[in-house]
Structures are given as C-alpha cells and as structure tokens.
C-alpha cells in the first residue's frame, strides 16, 4: 500500500508529494493514506477519528452495511455469470474482449476484505498518524479480521468457480504476510498470483502513484471481471482529478454501476476523499490540512 514501487521513491514522494503527483491523486491510498483524522496529543483538541473507529468496531450499523452489501452482491453472482457480456471494468480499462475468459471478482483488501480498525485504534490511543513502520508492523502481525459478510460472499463466489483477485495498495513486499492473513481469515486464495500489490509490474502500463489502473488492466487480460469491491472511488476506476468536483463528476458518470457491478464498503476512518479537501497537499502542516477540511463543511445559514 505505497505510492511508489520502491522505498526510495516512496520516501521522496511523501516528502515532496506535489513534485511526485500528476493532476490525479497519487498520495498513499487505502490504509497507507495518512490518517488525517487521527489523534492529537493528550490535552489538545478532541480526537477526530475516535467516533469513526468506535463506530466501525462496535456499531451494529457498520455490520449491517457491510453484510447487506456482500449479501446483495452474492445474489447477483448467478446473473453476472449467465450474461456473457457482463463486465465490471470500464471500457477504457479493458484492452481485450472479456468473452470466454475465466470469471473473477476484484476486491480491495483493506477495509473491504480485512478490517484494520485495530491499527487505527492504536493511532487514536497513541495520538499518532499513519507511518510506514507502524503499518508494516501491523501487517506483519497478520491479525486483521475479515470484514463482516465477506466470507459468505467469498464462499459463494468460490463455489461457482469465480476467482477472487486482491488488488491492494499494500506494497508487494507485504505480499506474504497479506496472503497469510487472508488465508487465516478464511478467504479463498487460489495462488500467490491473485495478489496484485502496489509495485506490481504491468508491461506497457506506467504506474501512476497509487492508482490501480494498470493492475485492473492486468486482471482484465486473464479474467472476465464480474464485480469490483472497494472502500475508495479509486478502487473501481481511475481518479484523474482528485478534487470534490472531479470525484463528483466521476461518480455521476458511473452511478448506475454501484449496486450491480461495483460494491462500495463503508470506511469513515481515512480515504482519498480527505485530501480532495486540501488539494492533495500532504506537505502542509497537519493543522493546515485540518483547517481546509473544516472550511469544506456546510454549516447551513
């Protein structure tokens, strides 16, 4: 889950993100997105992320949302399999015909398949934001539990001969730990090739930061993609302009795909929606980012 294939490039990109990003959002995605709503030191402002993490970990509302999403998707599987032209990749991301290819579904990993809220809870407890060292340590523990509902869907897909592909912004060096965690959690893992982490080489396609475009294209070369699952807009389609306006336009263009071919999971703890509110400028001081987010709120006259 990094914004570049190599540690050196990542370090440079995090230090000077503006120089590393094109017009699209290329800051660290998924859990690698710095938790801009994480805790502040004791005695300062109330923690922004406390409610969000507590909601994910304790509320029945969160469980209901994730379970109903996966339940509804499972009911669509047979229809998707029967329809020869059913494809969950946008036309611009499919370079070959999908007809006749083996069926698959694409799933993001973090907050879509595996629940990393304990990592976020540690940040709240310790008054910290995301950093590579603590994230890699968390992944190496292999303690993430499955998101409610995903196991039933995964079994239904597996029983129908549908391959589960895990396209994640966990970096490729976290592959072994991630696959072990997925298996331990009860997720079907056909073989090591079903994990496409950040840094996966795709011939003829230039990786753009943490965008998943190239890896979706790679999946489309071998599989007919029936569905995609994620907790970020960029898990489904390339986000060319990570601004409020750009994201709204992209959603409007593909709104009909959600609940049919695309399935969004709730994640209030972090995401690419947040930097869209401060112009993706991670090099700003934390308080400047927070102020930009406050300025984006609608207080209603």
Topology (elements, then pairings):
Blueprint lengths: L6 H9 L1 H4 L29 H9 L1 H23 L19 E6 L6 E2 L1 H10 L5 H10 L3 E2 L3 H10 L3 E9 L3 H10 L10 E4 L14 H10 E8 L13 H11 L7 E3 L21 H10 L6
Parallel strand pairs: 1-4, 1-6, 4-5, 6-7
Antiparallel strand pairs: 2-3
Helix pairs in contact: 3-4, 3-5, 4-7
- Oligomer, anyone? single chain
Just name the CATH architecture.
3-Layer(aba) Sandwich
How large, in whole angstroms, is the Cα Rg? 19 Å
Number of helices: 11
The strand count comes to 7
**Biggest β-sheet description:** 5 strands, parallel
CATH level 1 class label: Alpha Beta
Please name the fourth-level CATH homologous superfamily.
HAD superfamily/HAD-like
Helix content: 25-40%
Q: Write down the overall mean pLDDT.
A: 87
| Overall tally of domains | 1
The best one-word shape is globular
Give structural notes:
The chain has a single domain, classed as Rossmann fold, CATH 3.40.50.1000. It is built from 11 helices and 7 strands. The N terminus is likely disordered.
């Amino acid at each position: 889950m990094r914004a570049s294939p190599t540690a050196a490039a990542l370090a440079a990109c995090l230090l000077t993100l503006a120089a590393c990003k094109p017009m699209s959002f290329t800051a660290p995605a998924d859990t690698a997105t710095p938790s801009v709503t994480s805790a502040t030191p004791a005695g300062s402002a109330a923690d922004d992320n406390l409610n969000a993490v507590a909601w994910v970990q304790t509320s029945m509302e969160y469980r209901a949302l994730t379970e109903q999403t996966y339940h509804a998707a499972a009911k669509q599987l047979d229809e998707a399999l029967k329809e020869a032209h059913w494809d969950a990749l946008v036309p611009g991301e499919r370079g070959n015909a999908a007809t006749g290819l083996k069926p698959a579904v694409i799933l993001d990993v973090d907050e879509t398949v595996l629940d990393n809220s304990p990592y976020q809870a540690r940040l709240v407890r310790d008054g910290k934001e995301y950093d590579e060292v603590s994230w890699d340590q968390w992944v190496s523990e292999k303690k993430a539990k499955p998101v409610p509902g995903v196991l039933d869907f995964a079994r239904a897909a597996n029983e129908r001969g549908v391959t589960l592909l895990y396209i994640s912004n966990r970096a490729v060096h976290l592959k072994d730990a991630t696959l072990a965690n997925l298996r331990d959690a009860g997720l079907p893992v056909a073989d090591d090739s079903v994990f496409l982490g950040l840094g996966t080489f795709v011939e003829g396609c230039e990786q753009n930061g943490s965008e998943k475009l190239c890896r979706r294209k790679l999946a489309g070369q071998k599989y007919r993609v029936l569905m995609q699952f994620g907790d970020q807009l960029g898990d489904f389609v390339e986000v060319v302009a990570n601004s409020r306006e750009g994201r709204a336009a992209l959603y409007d263009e593909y709104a009909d795909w959600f609940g049919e071919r695309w399935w969004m999971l709730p994640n209030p703890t972090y995401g690419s929606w947040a930097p869209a509110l401060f112009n993706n400028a991670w090099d700003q001081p934390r308080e400047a980012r927070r102020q930009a987010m406050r300025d984006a709120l609608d207080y209603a006259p």
